[in-house]
Amino acid sequence: MKYMHLVWAALFRRKTRTFLTLASIMAAFLLFGLLDGIRTTFSQLGQNADGAQRLQTGSKLSFIETLPLSLRTRIVQVDNIEAVTWANWFGGAYQNPRNQIFSFAVADNYLDLYPEIEVSAEARDAFARTRTGALVGQALANRFDWKVGDRVPLQSTIFPNADGTLNWEFEIVGIFRARDGEESGFTDGLFLLRYDYFAESTPYVDGDVGWYVSRVRDVRQADAAAKAIDALSANSPNETKTMTEQAAFASQLKQMADIGLIVGSIMGAVFFTLLLLTGNTMAQAVRERTSELAVLKTIGFSSTSVLLMVLAESVLLVVLGGVLGLGLAAIAGPALGQGSGGVLNLPPVGLESWLLGLGLMVAIGLLVGALPALRGMRLNIVDALAGR
Amino acid sequence: MSKIKSLLSGLLLSIVVVAGVAAWILLPWQALLAVAALLVAWMLATRSGRQAGSVTHVGISTLPQRLGASSVVVIGIAGVVGVLVALLAMAEGYRQTVAATGNEDTAIVLRGGSAAEVMSVMEREALLAVSQAPEIARDADNRPLASSEIVVAANLPLRGAADEDGSVQLRGVDPVAWEVRPGMRIVEGRTFESGRRELVVGQGARRQFAGLDPGNELRLGSDVWTVVGVFASGDALESEVWADAGIIATTYRRGSSRNSITARLTSPDAFSAFKATLQADPRLKVEADTTAEYFSRQSEGMTKVLRIIGIVVGSIMAVGAVFGALNTMFATVAARAREIATLRAIGFRGLPVVVAVMLETMLLAAIGGALGGLIAWLVFNGYTASTLAGGVGQLTFEFRVTPQLLWDGLKWALAIGFVGGLFPAVRAARLPVTDALRAA
């Protein structure tokens, strides 16, 4: 550490070059921040403690099939099941049928099973009182500029209303947000309406529900509970498939696209390119300073300390650029989300991304510094001073 | 005074960069070809042009001595172009697959207000009324070539992943469906027989899901089905599984309702008349589209998202590569400072030097762009990916690296080379001769 000023001075020996290299590294880590944010959001969906406690029961035939409401009383009796709620797709769209929003018709105790949805007591009361009431996520409310008390017309792309048209109208009685910003992208975009109102109005549902959600008392026994629920309707026309919410999310996302593969291959290309650019810069920097390093050695610096100083310089360079880049990603991600009006949801750079990023910075710094540092260490004083 | 001068020239350079890149993006290739021809003519005809030519010659012939540094520019730009082309190839492959599914002379009819087939419900009366429209082509027995279809999502085990289910689009069709879509052909086995629990599977679906080989039996719900054939169509339908509409309706408790009608029209021009016929019928509340229109609309959103991701990622990487190229070219210029100063001392002007350094960088960039495009083509052309589409089933598609994409990639590469070369070139031309000659 006591040679820090030397390392620092060497780093800024050629200001233009250092700044250009820093900019390259920044670009790479800006990309890393944005992409890793996407990756972690996807991998964390349903991964929280609440998600592990919940089982999702849907039709085994396909996810668009419904289940009879009578199943509820039988699921409650299954061992280890604490509470059961249910929901149905609503398939709502605002203003334009292609402008779809995630809208569910939910049972009155739905929010009890989702403690991560933070909603005020007044809003819950209002939701219980108002038949046509709806609770909406913060992000969705921002996107369309909705406020509590607004009456919003929605078009269901699937279910007709009592009058035979696809037009529905709801009164917004509350706005909720996701606790601690968890899964904010999904939860904050939800639109919840009352199942009883929905089921009575539309002729198609016949009192069926889309899926059940049940909370287990003992998470370790969740698999057994899932099997017991599926056994209830085995060999009936309504066979079910029960999974933990976590597993359900994971399998759905996997079908959307192989996010990990895409992000991984982009990052691979980015870092390969980056490694090359920075490695070249470090090599140049050391080559230029050959005589300086020789002087250092002449006045008594050991070969090891020359090695360490060059390594420190390259790590410092990458960490500086990387932290700036990740910082930029932390600002740019949410800003991009705002700019796109909630269509694109880029999460802020999380702790996990920062740690992974820092690890990568140090590793890349060591890697690109290794060759020049070895060169510096092996430098023969006489040859170097003579300019050979 | 000199400060103002350098400020002004910096400003001028920035304008040149912006104008150059903008022109590069906006101008059609014919105009660019003309600019290139002018440059060549200038290099051949004028004195300074010939000077530029010879300096470039020297620069390029000494490139092998600077192999390490030059290859940094090449590989850096190849990385950018490779990633960009691969991402855009994904968007392109998806778009082509979905868009190829439709054509102008078949129409699809859905319930009004339905964004996709799976959300539409049509009752028996409506189905009959639609299929009697006079614009629908008829076969030899005078039956309308209109297929009432059911689309449902079915859960099937994924290939290669134990105990994991995926969703496949299961389509129940009328026997006439094969004539409605003449592009479909059975490549293995035979087609299903009406009234039996038999399935024919698309090639894409077969690749994606386990157990979809002819002769196999599989369970959908409480029933056992037999796979009897495989079909190919070269479009999105290949990701589907087909069976008899009546049997699917029984299994999925749909009664006599269906999701949609796909009909072959007497001619592509008949579509507007067909649409008018349906609108004039007071019994019907339906929307008709040509299948070309319907499927291109289905792919619109996803293609846009994929393209935006490609361009955002490509832009950020390009910025990184521009700085890398700048760095390398500055170093190159510094290494050749004495050589360039000597040239200027013996009478070479600034412009030929600028042109020479620029040409050298653009050459490196072009090599990088070609390399990146080649790698993307070798690795990703034909690479199979899948996504959830139309709200119900997985759609498999292939990455398509088209000549247009390769050309776009090359354009990006040259733009990076232009920006990365200009500043070092100007610096080389400006460096005071005496200083440069003294430099190590």
TrEMBL record, chain A:
Keywords annotated in UniProt: Cell membrane, Membrane, Transmembrane, Transmembrane helix
Keyword Coiled coil: no
Xref: InterPro entries: ABC-4/HrtB_transporter (IPR051125), ABC3_permease_C (IPR003838), MacB_PCD (IPR025857)
Subcellular localization, as worded in the UniProt entry: Cell membrane
Pfam family, one: FtsX
UniProt domain MacB-like periplasmic core: residue ranges: 24-231
Listed GO CC annotations: plasma membrane
PANTHER family attached to this UniProt entry: ABC TRANSPORTER PERMEASE, ABC TRANSPORTER, MEMBRANE PROTEIN
Name the record gives this protein: ABC transporter permease
Annotated source species: Luteimonas yindakuii
